[in-house]
Amino acid sequence: MNACIAPTSEAEACALVREQAAIGGRLLAQGGGTQLPDAPAVTRISSRALQGVVHYQPDDFTVTVAAGTPCTELTDALAREGQRLPFEVHDHRPLLGTQGTPTIGAVAASDLAGCARQHLLGARLINGRGDLVRCGSRALKNVAGLDLSPLVVGSRGSLGLITEVVWRVECLPERALTVGVHCSIGDALRFMARARALGLRLRGGVHLNAAALGGRDLPAPSGSAGLAMLRFEGRSLEALRVQARRLSLGTVAEWTDTGSDRVWGSIRAHGALCSKDNEPVWHIQQLSRIPGQLLQRLTDRPDLRLQLDLVGGRGWARGALSAADQAATRALCLQGVSAELRRPGLGEHHRAIKRSFDPAGVWIDLMDIGEPQ
Amino acid sequence: MSAHSLLGPRSAAPDALRQALLEILAPEAVIFCEGVPTTYERDGLNGSSGQPGAIVLPSTTSQVVRLMRFARRSGMPVMPRGAGTSRCGGAVPPAGSLVIATTKLRAIVDFDPVAGRVRVQPGVRNQTVSEHVQDAGWFYAPDPSSRRTCTLGGNIATNASGACAFRHGNTASHLLGLTAVLHDGETLDLGCHGDAAPDYDLAGLLCGSEGMLAFVTEATVQLTPLAQQARSMAIGFATRTEALACASALLRAGLVPHRLEFMDRLAVMLTERHLPSGCDIDAEASLLVELQGLPEEVAEDLDLLRSTVDRRGARSLHAAPSEDDAALWRGREAIYAAVSRAGRFECLDVGVPRSALPAALEEIDALARQHGVDHASVVHAGDGTLHTFLISPQRDEAAARRACACGDAIRRLCVRLGGSITTEYGVGLGRRDLLALQWSAGDLAQQRLICEALAPGGSLNPDKVFPASAGAT
C-alpha cells in the first residue's frame, strides 16, 4: 500500500497502528509532508488532521497543541496574546522544493530548529504497539518519573506518531534590532562568545558565507568575508544599540522592528540557499564539533552556500560535500545524494530504545527512506 | 505517606565480598556496615533507612567500571549516592546493595573561561562549581536550595533546579555532555563528550533518571555569566491574589527576573523572625523580585517593575540596599531553618500551571484545615512550584501523620490542576506510590521498558521511582 492516511483522532490512529503491527506492516509518520519531495513507496500516517490548540493559558507560559496544527496557526494564536515560541520555526519548503504545510509536531520530530529541543516540555505519541504514550508534562517543571520527551525530539518518526506537543512560550519583544557585520565565520563565533560572556540574550545569530550572499538583497561582502546578522530584542532601541555597541561589531547595516522581522523571515525560509538547481542540501547538527579550520575552509568555498545558525549551533549547506567533509561535519543529507553517505546506523542502545517503543519495527525513520528496509 | 523502612539484617560482610572490593579499591575507600550505623544508610527522607552490603568510594571512571562489573557478576544491586541530600529517599540504599558514593569523585577536570564551560566529576558540590568559576566572571545557574551541599551528580539524577529556573532553566538545559557507566561496565560518552551520532538524546534521558539508568562519572555543563548589576525588591500586598496577579502582570509584560518568589504571611513572619531581611510582616503576601543583567537592561526592568507595582496597588515596596542586594534574600534562603523553629515539618515541592496558583493556594488552605495542620507556602512564581511547609509540633506523632496525609492530598490536588507531584526533589522512595496519580499504567510501562533497555533487571537503584505494582509489559 502506498497511501497517506490522516486519522482524525488518536483512537483512530492507535487502531490503524495496531492493524499494521498485526500484519507486519510498516508505517512512515509525517506531519504536513514538507520534508518529502516525492511520495515514498510506503504507507504514511499523517497527523495533519489532528489540529488545534488543546490548552493555552497565557499566564502559564506553556501551550499544548495537537501535532498536526500548522505552525503559522500556532504562532498567530500566540502572537494574539503577545507571546511566541522561544525558537525560530523554519520553513523548509522553498529550500527542499516540497509542498505541504509545516506542522508543529514535525518541528519536534525533525529537530531541525536550533533551540527547539530545550523548549519541548511534553508530548504524546502512538508507539509501535498502537499505544498512546505520554511524555514529560504540561507544566513548566516536572520531575515525576522518567521523562521520555528528550527521546522524542529528533526521533524522525522512528518511535511513533507524535499526536500532541507541549512547548514553553515567551513574550514577544517590544522592539527588535538586527545588525549586519561583514566578517569571517571565526570572527562571527568570537562575537557570539563575547555576547554570551556579557549575558546578552540574542534571539538570533546567523552567518551567511560569500557564496550564499551572491545576488541577494543584503550588503555585499568585501573579498571572501561573509555576513553575520545578530538580533537584539528588548524594550527600547536605545538600549539595544547600547548592547550592540558592547560587541564592537563594525556594523555595516541595521534593521529595526518590521525590517528586522523581514530579514529573519528570509533566514527562516533559507532564502540565501534556495535555487532551481538540484544541488544537495545538508543539515549540520552540531556546529561546535567542527574544527575551526574546516569551518573556515567550507565557508571560503565559492561553490558551497552556507547558512550557519550561531544561536542554535546548527547549519544549512547547499552544494557538494566530500565524504570526508560529510563525516567531519556529521552533516545529514536532506536531499540529493546516495544513501551510503546519509548517516551512520543506530548504536546498540539506540536500537534497544527503539525496540522498547516499537518491538515489531512498525515505524520507519524518515532518514531511512530510500534505503533498503 | 507512611514511613518506609528497608532495614535488612545487620551482619558482617562475607569474606568474598570484602576480598573482591579490596582488589578494586584501597581499604580506606571501602566501608562495611558492621554494628555502627553510617550516614550512608539514610538521606533527607524522615523515617527511612536501608542496610547496604557495602559502601565504596571510587575516585576514577575505571574504578567505577570495575565496581559495576563486579556488582553485575555477583548480583548486587547498585545505588549511586551523592551527598545524600535527597528529600524523597532517592539515596536510601536497598538492602544488600553496593552503594557507590561520589565522595572521592570531586575533581574539576577542565574549565574553559572563554566558552563558559566546565567539566566536573559528579561529587563536586553545586556551589563549588560557581566558586571555582566566579573569578572568570561565570556562575552555575541551577540553584537548588541545598546547593552548598548537594552534588552535580545528584543534580543530574534529579534534573535539579531552583528559584532561577524561569530565567535560566534546569540542569538538563545546562548539560552539554556526560560520561556514564552502564550496569555492565560499558562506558558511554554522550553529548560533547563523545562521537556518537546524534540520534536519541541519551544524555537528556539520563538527566532526571534518579540513578536508575547509569552512573555518571563526568559531566560538562554550560555556565552563565555573572550579571553586571543586580537589584532586588520586596513588595507587600493586602491579598495573595493581588500578589500573584502582580507576578503574572510582570511576566506578561516581558520581565524575565533572575528570581521571583511569592511568600505567604506565615512564611514571611517565620523568616523575618529568624533572620530579619526587610520584608513586610503585616502584608498578607509578598513578592521578592531580583533583577539581573546589564545596567541598561536592569534600568528598564526597574522602570517596568515600579510602574506595574504602582498600578497594582501594593501596600509596601522595599528596595534592597544597593551595596548589599543579597540582604533582602537572607530570610527567604533560610526558610528551612526558620520553619524548623516552629516545629517539625514536611516540605512539598509540588507544581501547578501558573494560572492555577490562586486556586491551589485556596484549596491548600482547606486541606490544611481539614487535616488540622499549620502551613506556610513559598512559591517560585515564575514556574509554578509550590514549597508548602506542613508544620506539626515536635514529638506529636499523630500531628505528623496528619501532615503526611495532608501532603498526599495536596499532591493529588496538584495533579488534578494539571501539575506535578514533584518538580525538584524527584520521586525516590517516598513518592513512588503516588506516581500512578500522574501517569497511566501504559505510560509507566513504557518508562519501565526504557529502564529495562539500558539497565536490564533493574539493578541500578532498584525499588525507587516506580510503584511496586507497575510491571513491565
Strand content of chain A: 15-25%
Helix content percent band of chain B: 25-40%
- What pattern of helices and strands is seen along the backbone of chain A? EHEEEEHEHHEEHEEEHEHEHEHEHEEHEH
Number of strands of chain B: 19
What is the tally of beta strands of chain A? 18
Question: How would you concisely characterize the structure shown here?
Answer:
Chain A is of the alpha+beta class and about 375 residues long.
Would you kindly provide a written description of the structure presented here, covering whatever features stand out?
The complex is a heterodimer of chains A (373) and B (473). Chain A is an alpha+beta fold and 373 residues long. Chain A is built from twelve helices and 18 strands. Chain A is globular and about 65 Å long. In chain A, 49% of the residues are buried. Residues 338-342 of chain A have low confidence and may be disordered. In chain B, the strands form four sheets. In chain B, strands 12, 13, 14, 15, 16, 17, 18 and 19 form an eight-stranded antiparallel β-sheet that branches. In chain B, strands 5-6-10-8-9 form a five-stranded antiparallel β-sheet. Chain B has a four-stranded mixed β-sheet with strand order 1-2-4-3, covered by helices on one side. Chain B has 15 helices and 19 strands. In chain B, helix 12 packs antiparallel against helix 13. Chain B is an alpha+beta fold and 473 residues long. In chain B, a hairpin with a 4-residue loop joins strand 18 (374-380) and strand 19 (385-392).
